[in-house]
Amino acid sequence: MSKFVFDTREKKNEHIKAYFDKHGIEYEIRKLDVGDYQIEEKPQISVDRKRNLQELSKNLMNAKDHSRFWKEVRRAREQKIKLFVLVEHGGQIKSIEDVAKWMDKYSGVSGRALMDEIYRVHIAYGVEFLFCDKRSTARKIIEILETCKE
């Protein structure tokens, strides 16, 4: 059975820990260089979780967060880590194309602009963007990490 690793800086993930605990899935909490979740035996694959499109938008479109996110993306490429960004937005957002319909009422970032930036990261660095409902996040993390062959 795989041993999962959760990054020490990953916050507000009680729902993920609860799922792992309930199903007797072993995990360890320690610092990761890239992303928030990995399997110890497959460190070349990592999942970076975002709570919603607002957080992703802030990471991609806000000048302060922008550089930190891009550093992590570049570090993943340098270390030959396949990076998945898993966004817990839920609702109608199930794919990158669905992001075009979204609008951040606080920052004014359009869904179209965010979608374009997501595609830019995907094309330039091979980062995969996936979307799920918060209730299925833990299962999705396990699925990604256990089935990805990169």
Number of helices: 6
Distance between the termini: 19 Å
Low-confidence stretches: none
* Mean pLDDT across all amino acids: 93
Can you name the CATH architecture of the domain at 46-147?
3-Layer(aba) Sandwich
What is the overall silhouette? globular
Number of DSSP E strands: 6
Radius of gyration: 15 Å
Q: What is the chain-wise order of helices and strands?
A: EHEEEHHEHHEH
Question: Strand order, biggest sheet?
Answer: 2-1-3-4-5-6
Helix-strand category: alpha/beta
Helix percent band: 40-55%
Please outline the helices and strands:
Layout: E1 4-6, H1 14-22, E2 27-29, E3 37-39, E4 42-50, H2 53-61, H3 63-78, E5 82-87, H4 96-99, H5 111-125, E6 128-131, H6 137-147
Parallel strand pairs: 1-2, 4-5, 5-6
Antiparallel strand pairs: 1-3, 3-4
Write structural notes for this entry:
- This protein is an alpha/beta fold.
- It has a domain at 46-147: Rossmann fold.
- Helix content is 43%, strand content 19%.
- It has six helices and six strands, in the order βαβββααβααβα.
- The protein has a six-stranded mixed β-sheet, sandwiched between helices.
- Strand 1, helix 1 and strand 2 form a beta-alpha-beta unit.
- Helix 2 packs across helix 3 (63-78).
- The two termini are 19 Å apart.
